[in-house]
């Protein structure tokens, strides 16, 4: 277990979302009631105007956001801890999450079963220059912007003010990336997508076994690195015991890893595709650009099947609904924990948020997804591009360690314990 059940005194723990020292504060009942009302209204609207898929996805999104916040489950911080001081605790939780995910995804993808009978498709994307450049850019961007795609959403829900700036420019960068994507995918060299299950002859059973072996190998490597570097442990977060821990206090990382994998599998069975985040950002930005008279419909990105998405209501877009659910779920989790509070911003962290958001948005489009769609969803779908994304994002993280101090952002030191 990587978190503790001991309640920490208020002056010992600094919450990674609010950046304030906290213990188990009282629930913020007005915010909880307001969040529940907004959720109920959105649910009713979706039930009236959309099919049953959208309301179900809103619930899944709520649970995803709730889980992410309660465990402070991060991708950005996990990569930074490994590359800066060699701590692999959080990355090992990623391997557990992926192990559970491939175990659930394998039969779903093999038999094509979904709740609504529309078939299922994993995220298996091409291997080319766009993937390499995009994942590397994203790795730098998430370290400057203060969060990855999912981290940006749940940090916004938790009230971290600078992340609103990151989200805004994440949308801008994703929109620009959509405009430029045909150049990167059509004019730059690339190989066909490679699935460990269908492109290698292994089948889903063999691909599952290979994936589990790879996750075990990566976990072992992180343990070797930790012993060699004598890396610091992650600082515990305030929590409680028993059933109350479901609602109050931090969750163990292993519990969140399992929950996220199960919820991703439910997403796959509900909408026929894994959890994704950033395609909605390109849609939102393109809608705004279209409103101001830009001929977005002529972009190559919005041709073919995507054309209907652009012309439809954003509430018909399943990724949009999931994103709204994640933000609202994180908001409710922060309010239940008494942690929601808008934080201060300054010129340096706003500048970093602008640059980080742009890099992540642009990079996600080039790399066929973010830490969720490419890394989590890609690896869970047995796609080789998911592993390559992770390696290049780690490389981008390493570069960003030298850039963060320029914006007043901290880098963990070998003598520090950290959240």
TrEMBL record:
This is YeeE/YedE family protein. It comes from Virgibacillus byunsanensis. It comes from the Bacteria. The chain crosses the membrane at residues 29-48, 54-75, 96-116, 128-149, 161-181, 201-225, 246-266, 321-340, 352-376, 382-403. The keyword Cell membrane applies. InterPro entries: Sulf_transp_TsuA/YedE. It is found in: Cell inner membrane. Pfam families: Sulf_transp. The keyword Transport applies. PANTHER family: INNER MEMBRANE PROTEIN YEDE, SULPHUR TRANSPORT DOMAIN-CONTAINING PROTEIN. Keywords: Cell inner membrane, Cell membrane, Membrane, Transmembrane, Transmembrane helix, Transport. The lineage of its organism: Bacteria, Bacillati, Bacillota, Bacilli, Bacillales. Belongs to the TsuA/YedE (TC 9.B.102) family. Its main location: membrane. It is a multi-pass membrane protein.
């Amino acid at each position: 277990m990587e978190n503790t059940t001991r309640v920490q005194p208020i002056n010992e723990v600094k919450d990674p979302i609010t950046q304030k020292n906290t213990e188990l504060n009282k629930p913020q009942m007005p915010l909880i009631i307001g969040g529940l009302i907004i959720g109920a209204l959105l649910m009713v609207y979706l039930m009236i105007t959309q099919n049953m898929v959208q309301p179900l996805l809103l619930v899944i999104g709520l649970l995803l956001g709730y889980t992410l916040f309660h465990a402070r489950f991060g991708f950005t911080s996990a990569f930074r801890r490994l590359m800066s001081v060699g701590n692999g605790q959080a990355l090992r939780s990623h391997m557990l999450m992926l192990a559970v995910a491939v175990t659930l995804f394998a039969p779903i993808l093999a038999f094509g079963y979904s709740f609504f009978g529309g078939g299922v498709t994993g995220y298996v994307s091409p291997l080319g220059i766009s993937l390499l450049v995009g994942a590397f850019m994203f790795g730098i961007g998430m370290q400057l912007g203060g969060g990855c795609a999912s981290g940006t959403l749940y940090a916004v829900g938790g009230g971290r003010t600078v992340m609103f700036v990151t989200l805004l420019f994440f949308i801008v960068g994703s929109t620009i990336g959509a405009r430029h994507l045909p150049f990167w995918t059509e004019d730059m060299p690339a190989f066909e997508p490679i699935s460990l299950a269908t492109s290698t002859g292994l089948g889903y059973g063999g691909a599952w076994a290979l994936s589990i072996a790879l996750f075990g190998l990566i976990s072992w490597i992180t343990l070797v690195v930790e012993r060699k570097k004598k890396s610091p442990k992650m600082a515990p977060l305030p929590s409680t015991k028993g059933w109350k821990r479901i609602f109050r206090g931090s969750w163990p990382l292993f519990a969140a890893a399992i929950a996220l994998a199960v919820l991703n599998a439910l997403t796959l069975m509900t909408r026929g595709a894994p959890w994704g985040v950033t395609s909605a950002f390109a849609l939102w930005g393109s809608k705004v650009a279209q409103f101001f008279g830009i001929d977005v419909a002529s972009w190559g990105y919005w041709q073919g099947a995507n054309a209907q998405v652009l012309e439809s209501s954003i509430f018909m877009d399943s990724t949009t609904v999931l994103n709204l659910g994640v933000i609202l779920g994180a908001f409710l989790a922060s309010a239940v924990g008494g942690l929601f509070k808008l934080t201060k911003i300054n010129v340096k962290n706003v500048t970093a948020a602008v640059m980080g958001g742009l890099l992540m948005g642009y990079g996600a489009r080039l790399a066929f997804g973010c830490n969720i769609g490419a890394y989590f969803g890609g690896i869970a779908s047995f796609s080789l591009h998911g592993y390559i994304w992770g390696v290049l994002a780690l490389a981008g993280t390493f570069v960003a360690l030298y850039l963060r101090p320029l914006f007043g952002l901290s880098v963990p030191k070998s003598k520090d314990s950290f959240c």
